[in-house]
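Pipeline run #58 for the internal structure catalog. This entry was flagged by the ingest filter as a single-chain record with no existing model, so it goes straight to prediction. Upstream metadata was stripped on purpose; only the residue string is passed forward. Reviewer on rotation: M.T. Logging verbosity set to normal.
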Amino acid sequence: MKTSDMRESKFLKQSDVGAGLLLTLVRIEQHNVAKEGVDPELKWCAVFAEAEKPMVFNSTNIQLCERIFGSDDTEDWLGKKLVVYTDPNVSFGGKVVGGLRVRM
């Protein structure tokens, strides 16, 4: 078993999508991403028909969706398909750690 599979998460993570999954966007909603016992931290998340977990939407992925779907109104995105994939070049906190990205 890989150690990444041992870390449970209520959100999509790199090991969940691998090279990529074709998913249908059904909702955009806010979720508390803070650890238990800490003040709430709400982030926008994408909910997909084919995935059990939502994907936390960072600014880059929101901008990519605007470009992909040709609209800044998330209502226009619903029912559309995206590929969610692992990009090894995503940085966080000044370090390249990999992360999730979207494409057509």
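catalog note: The first helix runs from residue 3 to 6.
catalog note: The chain is about 20% helix and 35% strand.
status: ready for reviewer M.T.
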